[in-house]
Structures are given as structure tokens and as C-alpha cells.
Amino acid sequence: MTAHNSATLPASIAVKGVGGRGTLLASLGVIAFSLTFPSTAWGLESFGPWSLVALRSVLAAALAGAFLLGRRVPLPGREHWAGLAVVAAGVVVGFPLLTTLALTTSTTSHAAVVVGLLPLTTAALSALRTGARPSRRFWAAALAGAAVVLGFTVAQSGGSLSAGDAYLFAALLVCAAGYTEGGRLAKVLPGWQVVGWALVLCLPLSLAGSALGLAYEPVHLTAHGLAGLVWAAAGSTFLGLYVWYRGMAEIGAPRASQLQLAQPLLTLVWSVALLGERLSPAAPVAACAVLVCIAVTQRVK
Question: What are phi and psi of 163, to 5 degrees?
């Protein structure tokens, strides 16, 4: 009995350590993503939506390419390119473009209403793609958390619907597909390489989009606009996706996706600090309720 325990204890501790590290990495990704909408709002002060998205992708691809070249990373196998194309289409192009277009007519708080559904969308697509079957308790906690987020953010936006809702709902679907495929690839490739190759794959399209966007959309450079562009590229698109995919590979897409329940609330906090929006006194109550739901989803499978 003693020998058996001594043999299994280190492995058990190692599993818990990996799970804790994965949760931390995924949480850092959520923090980075929570700044995406405010930084995009800043970026739109200087650039048109098409220019902003294309330039964001070019800068992020330059960072990723430098890392890949500096570490002499070989090209991915042919069997991985289809998955990388899904990541690129969903996360690098689709979600940034659709949400940026939505933010030209919607506020960041309203956009957070729809983005609050992303964890459930990701978990559902992940279950379909991987065959995973989370427990009923997991789904109940996830649904409760999503309901809290939606109720809170709808109240913040006055319950009105935006003309950009179609963009936001489409963004949910393509982003969830990209997250799911990226999480699967991150189990066989380092997460930063999944992000890096997806960005590099989009570079020709991003360069062409930048040239066209800058030719047809006005540019009014401001400190906010440049800061928003830099964060959207380096923070949200590169660093955020890097830690997110690493964390998702370690704890699984369904569990990692539920951490994003906190993202709309964090976005509202940043909106107050960076954009001057007013935050409801109900925010602490909603935040505590969401944290309870997240804790439940992290304890069940």
C-alpha cells in the first residue's frame, strides 16, 4: 500500500499542477481579450474598420513570424494546415473583422451582450468536434453563468438591440470554431506555434487588406488610436491567443471556455476606466455570481 501511494502521489500532484497552470494561462488570455473591444474603440478613432483589422493582423503576424524564425520552427505537417486555416479564418480574420464592424454602430457594453454567449458556443462546437460529453452539472453551471452575463449586460445597454447584432452573432460562430480547432491543434503543436502559423497564413491577405483599406478609408492619427492598434495586435491577437491556446490545451476547451464568462464583466470595467462609460452598482453582485458558476464548471467534467 505504501509503495503504491508513493508511486502515484507525484503523478497526482503533477496533474493538479498542470491543471492549475492551464487555468492561469487561459485566465490571462481572458484578461487580454477583455481589452479587445475598448482597444478597438480607440483604434477606430484613427482608422477605418477594414484598415484597423488588416493592420492589426499584419503587426501580429510580424511578431509571430519573428518568433518562428528566431526559434527556427519547421513548417507544420500537411495534416495540420486545414486546421490552421480554420483558426485563421475564425480567430485572425473573422472575429476581429465582424466585431470591429459591429463596434462602428454598437457600444462596447452592447457588444458584450452577445460575446457573453461565446463560452457556450465554444463548448457546444467543441463537443461536436471532439466527441466530448460534459456532465449535466457542467452544462447547468455554464447556462447559469451565461444567463447572469446576458442579464447583466442587457441591463447595462438598456435592453436595446443594435444594428450590429448580425455581425456579433456571426462573430460568435466563427470565433468558437477557431477556438475549438486551435485547442485541438495545441495538443500536438505548441500553442504559440498554432497562433503564429495562423497569423502568418493570413499575412498575404492582411497586407492586401491594409493597402486597400488605407487607400479608401481616412486616417486621423491619435495617441488613443495608435495605442488601440498596438494592443489589439500585440496584446489581444498575439499574446492573448498564445496563452489562451496553451491553457486550453491543458484543461480542455469546454472548461477553458467557461472562464470567458468573466470577459464581458471585465470589458465593462475597462470601458469605465478607458472609455468613460458608467458601470451599474449591480456589477459586484453579477461578478460574484459569475465567479461561482466558473468555480462549478472548473470542478466538474
Answer: -65, -20
- Whose grid coordinates read 457600444? 107
Tens-digit pLDDT profile for residues 17-54: 556 888 999 999 999 999 999 999 999 999 999 999 99
Q: Cell 491594409 belongs to which residue?
A: 210
What are the backbone dihedrals phi and psi of residue 221, each rounded to the nearest 5 degrees, phi first? -65, 130
Give the whole-angstrom CA distance, residue 30 versus residue 250: 15
Give CA–CA dist 53/262, Å, rounded.
25
Handedness of CA 101, 104, 106, 108 (dihedral sign): positive
pLDDT digit string, tens, across residues 161-190? 667 788 988 998 999 999 888 878 888 888
Q: Measure the N-to-C terminal CA separation of the chain; round to a whole number of Å.
A: 29
* Global pTM exceeds 0.90: no
Percent helix, strand and coil across the chain, each to the nearest 5: 80, 0, 20
Element spanning 169, H or E = helix 165-185
